[in-house]
């Protein structure tokens, strides 16, 4: 035996033991002990991407953590506690990261302990789950309302929203007028309103005191306004959209449906039957008498008027209603041009007859086979009538009509997205007087009928 060999062997064992202890302590210090008595939800964890590495047969917590140190992908040492002789009954090593995201799930259960790698804890668990800030509420008092004098009006804020809940609804009339509250906190009832325009402000407050406000307008119609809103005929308009709307039929004294083309509507145009009924029920004006002449000549037209080619003025709601009111017919002429730019359509039936269509690019009329029903208006019985009706319509006209249609579609889309965005924006409170000056238009009140549905 080499002299001094036992001493060298003892020294080697001591040094190795010290290094192992230091390595074990250094490894253990890289892990943070998790909350006691939480068991790993294996099914949920693996479903979200956690990976089981191994289950070494060890009896001490430090040995289980040390085993995790030796595995490059291990970041969780999870163990079931045992008795005094064997402090842990079982040891499990896992990788709780999937694509750098922490995916392990735990559930409360006695008898379990876990250690997680410090770097993983600091990045994913130290601050807990991110707190989503409480968003402010969004007040919604519903659309503007049109009613007859002395009708009762019910206003409610049930469509208002908040992520944590609304605790207070406050209705306030922006001009003095009594109103009654109901058993619902978001609702008030106003009755016996006389003709005029009334503004109601709704303020909603959420659980932490954040608030939002909106304004609802109630237009109580005068007899003259009732004629415009209820007694004029339905107006499809010149555009070729297809939007279900409601109008008041003065002959049947009922609200009825019709298909609105999408532009140049009159005021007898409502989104819902309820809106129509509120505006026109209990109407006692009788059927409208036909007017001998509606164009006004001899004075300058206002910016809102339609100016006839002869210089006379016309209510813009009467343009493109299929009835010439300008003595020169100019209020319907531009509407007819669109007919001459449509492509020929044979229709949907089985008959066969010869019709004539106008081609704006060749500026002439040509025959085509028509099935007897359906199709569009670019069909004429004779070539002479076709040429007379569409005289002056060129490819430039067709492009203008196409441009107008594109603009209308664009404006409709912009209006639709604007309405959608309003639910996420804070609306300022508008203070407006409750009466309308003579001659002031009702366009702002009636804007809800022009939105897409």
Automatic annotation (TrEMBL):
Keyword Membrane belongs to the record: yes
Localization: Membrane
Residue ranges annotated for the MANSC domain, each copy included: 34-115
Keywords: Disulfide bond, Glycoprotein, Membrane, Signal, Transmembrane, Transmembrane helix
InterPro entries named in the record: Ig-like_fold, Kunitz_BPTI, Kunitz_BPTI_sf, LDL_receptor-like_sf, LDLR_class-A_CS, LDrepeatLR_classA_rpt, MANSC_dom, MANSC_N
One annotated GO molecular function: serine-type endopeptidase inhibitor activity
Membrane spanning stretches: 398-419
GO biological process terms, semicolon-separated: epidermis development; epithelium development; extracellular matrix organization
Disulfide bonds: 301-313, 308-326, 320-335
Pfam family, one: MANEC
Gene Ontology cellular component list: plasma membrane
Signal peptide extent: 1-20
BPTI/Kunitz inhibitor domain sequence ranges: 230-280, 340-390
Protein name: Serine peptidase inhibitor, Kunitz type 1 a
Organism encoding this protein: Oryzias sinensis (Chinese medaka)
Lineage start: Eukaryota, Metazoa, Chordata, Craniata, Vertebrata
């Amino acid at each position: 035996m080499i002299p001094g060999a036992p001493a060298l062997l003892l020294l080697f064992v001591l040094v190795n033991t010290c290094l192992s202890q230091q390595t074990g302590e250094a490894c253990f210090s890289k892990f943070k002990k998790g909350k006691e008595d939480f068991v790993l939800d294996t099914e949920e964890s693996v479903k979200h991407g956690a990976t089981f590495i191994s289950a070494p047969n060890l009896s001490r917590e430090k040995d289980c953590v040390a085993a995790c140190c030796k595995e490059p992908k291990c970041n969780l040492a999870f163990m079931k506690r045992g008795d005094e002789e064997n402090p842990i009954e079982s040891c499990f090593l896992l990788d709780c990261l999937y694509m750098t995201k922490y995916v392990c799930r735990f559930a409360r259960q006695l008898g379990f302990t876990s250690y997680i790698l410090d770097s993983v804890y600091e990045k994913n668990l130290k601050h807990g789950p991110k707190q989503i800030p409480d968003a402010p509420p969004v007040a919604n008092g519903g659309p503007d309302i049109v009613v007859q004098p002395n009708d009762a009006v019910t206003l409610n804020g049930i469509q208002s929203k908040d992520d944590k809940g609304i605790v207070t609804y406050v209705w306030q009339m922006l001009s003095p007028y009594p109103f009654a509250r109901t058993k619902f906190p978001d609702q008030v009832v106003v009755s016996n309103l006389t003709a005029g325009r009334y503004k109601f402000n709704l303020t909603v407050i959420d659980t932490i005191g954040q608030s939002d406000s909106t304004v609802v307008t109630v237009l109580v119609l005068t007899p003259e306004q009732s004629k415009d809103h209820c007694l004029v005929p339905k107006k499809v308009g010149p555009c070729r959209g297809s939007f279900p709307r409601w109008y008041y039929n003065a002959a049947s004294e009922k609200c009825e449906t019709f298909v609105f083309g999408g532009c140049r509507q009159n005021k007898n145009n409502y989104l819902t039957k309820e809106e129509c009924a509120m505006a026109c029920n209990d109407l006692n004006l009788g059927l409208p008498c036909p007017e001998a002449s509606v164009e006004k000549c001899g004075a300058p037209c206002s910016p809102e008027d339609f100016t006839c080619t002869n210089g006379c003025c016309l209510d813009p709601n009467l343009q493109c209603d299929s009835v010439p009111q300008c003595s020169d017919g100019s209020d319907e002429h531009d509407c007819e041009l669109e007919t001459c730019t449509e492509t020929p359509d044979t229709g949907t039936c089985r008959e066969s007859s010869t019709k004539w269509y106008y081609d704006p690019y060749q500026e002439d009329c040509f025959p085509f086979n028509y099935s007897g029903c359906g199709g569009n208006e670019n069909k004429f019985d004779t070539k002479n009538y076709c040429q007379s009706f569409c005289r002056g319509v060129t490819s430039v006209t067709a492009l203008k009509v196409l441009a107008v249609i594109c603009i209308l579609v664009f404006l409709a889309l912009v209006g639709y997205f604007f309405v959608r965005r309003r639910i996420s924006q804070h609306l300022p409170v508008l203070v407006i007087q409750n009466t309308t000056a003579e001659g002031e238009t009702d366009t702002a009140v009636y804007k809800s009928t022009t939105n897409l549905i």
